[in-house]
Each structure stands twice: as structure tokens, then as C-alpha cells.
Write a structure and sequence with these properties.
Number of domains: 2
Radius of gyration: 19 Å
Number of strands: 12
Strand content: 25-35%
CATH class of the largest domain: Alpha Beta
Structural class: alpha/beta
CATH topology of the largest domain: Nucleotidyltransferase, domain 5
Largest sheet: 7 strands, mixed
CATH architecture of the largest domain: 2-Layer Sandwich
Length: 249
């Protein structure tokens, strides 16, 4: 069995490859007890959480953490790699293979990350700013009277109560940052991914925009295939499902 993991700050996405392909998404805090019974498997992992990486190294023998060093043979990196997250460079590699150069990747999770692949198909970096949930939590914890917003109002510009104002303000604040970056670069392709990706996919009016679920996992699949670690028959099984559903607009 092969197990691919995209370990984020809040959630972990897992792809099990054996006779059948299975997918699940769990909270990162629950990852270790969940996968302990699979210590016989081969693991291929992207993680941004050092604490989890340390624990996994202690509990599993057949484990490969994919970093920029592993991906750099397939994509040129024009960026200081000291603090470059594996999720960012794997996503960039994946999009370079799918779309080529002049592609902007918008990852909407705990943070919103904008990454760009230039016309030479080089990864050149981008922007990082707080995501929706991080901003909502920060407002609530940093003030005495502002409420914690649990349900977002995504279609309003002017809020009619405090919760609507917070929701509208945060979404439009984030969207303004995204739109300014898109307007400045004018990329050929815009790829949107992440848990909050649907919000910005609907709001962004752009000629070549795509939404890809589980972009990092797809990047690991492509990398593993190139390295001979994942077989063509396994790739076909993986892509025949809805795990990486792609929306073209």
C-alpha cells in the first residue's frame, strides 16, 4: 500500500493506493492515531507542520517527505528556498505540468498564498496573507465586543449588522488582494485551490480560471509517477475518480 498525505496546519488530506483508491480528509491533530495501523505502508508526504513530521519519523520507517529538493529537477526555482513550504512548490510543479508558464496559483486555506510561474516555467514566488478563518479569529480574539462569525455572507458588499459587516469586510479584503495581483500579472491561467477556494472562484471574473481540488496531492501523484514510485495503472485508477475534480470556466 502507498499512502500520500498533504498535511496542513488544520486538515490533512490522505490518498490510499492499493487494489482500490480511497481518499479521506481529517483534522491534523488526529492524524497520528488514525494512520498508526498502516505502519507497513509506503508514505509520500508534504507537510508544513514540523511537529507532525518529527512524530511521523519516530513511528514509521518507509516514509518520504517531499521537499523543494525533490521537485527541483522538474521545475526551476527562482526563490529563496530556506522557508519554502513543500505544499507551495509541489502545487507550482503540478500546475507547471498541467498548464505551463504564466500561471497563477491561488491557495485559499489557513493563509491565502499567491504563487506565480513565469513564461519560462520558473517558480518565482508570490504573496502570503491571512486567510478568512484566521482573520475572523483574530478579530474576535483581539477585541472585546466583536462577535465570532461562524457563517459567512459571501454575496453582500454592505453589511446590515455586525456579523455581516465582518463577513463582508474580510471576504472583500482578501478578494481585493487577489484581484490586484491578478490584474497586475495578467496571467494566462489562474488556478484556485484550498478549502475557501469556492468563494473566490465564484467572485473572480477571469477568462481562464480553473478550480482543482487537492492540488498538492495531485502534484505528489505526478511526481511519484515521474520518479517511478507510482505506476501508470495506479495513476489511471486515481484519476478515474472525483478526488481531483477540475472545473474549467
Amino acid at each position: 500500500m502507498k499512502i500520500l498525505c498533504d498535511i496542513g496546519n488544520t486538515f490533512t488530506k490522505i490518498l490510499f493506493i492499493s487494489d482500490k483508491v480511497k481518499y479521506c480528509k481529517i483534522k491534523t491533530l488526529k492524524l497520528l492515531p488514525f494512520i498508526k495501523k498502516f505502519n507497513f505502508a509506503e508514505f509520500y508526504i508534504s507537510t508544513v507542520v514540523d511537529e507532525v513530521k518529527t512524530k511521523l519519523n519516530k513511528n514509521f520507517k518507509k516514509i518520504k517527505f517531499i521537499t523543494h529538493k525533490d521537485v527541483s529537477e522538474f521545475i526551476k526555482i527562482k526563490y529563496d528556498t530556506k522557508n519554502l513550504g513543500s505544499d507551495r512548490i509541489i502545487s507550482a510543479f503540478c500546475c507547471k505540468e498541467l498548464f505551463g508558464g504564466e500561471t497563477l496559483i491561488i491557495s485559499c486555506g489557513s493563509t491565502i498564498v499567491l504563487d506565480y510561474i513565469n513564461k519560462k516555467c520558473e517558480y518565482v514566488g508570490g504573496e502570503i496573507f491571512p486567510g478568512i478563518k484566521m482573520l475572523i479569529t483574530s478579530l474576535y480574539e483581539s477585541t472585546s465586543k466583536l462577535p465570532l462569525v461562524k457563517k459567512l455572507s459571501t454575496n453582500k458588499l454592505i453589511g446590515k449588522n455586525t456579523k455581516e459587516c465582518i463577513s463582508s469586510g474580510i471576504i472583500n479584503f482578501c478578494f481585493s488582494g487577489i484581484r490586484n495581483f491578478v490584474d497586475f500579472l495578467k496571467p494566462k491561467n489562474v488556478v484556485i485551490t484550498g478549502g475557501d477556494g469556492n468563494i473566490f472562484f465564484k467572485k473572480l471574473n477571469y477568462r481562464n480560471k480553473y478550480k482543482i481540488n487537492n492540488l498538492v496531492l495531485l502534484g505528489i501523484v505526478i511526481w511519484g509517477y515521474y520518479k517511478g514510485l507510482i505506476y501508470e495503472s495506479e495513476v489511471k485508477k486515481i484519476l478515474s475518480g472525483k478526488i481531483f475534480s477540475k472545473i474549467f470556466v
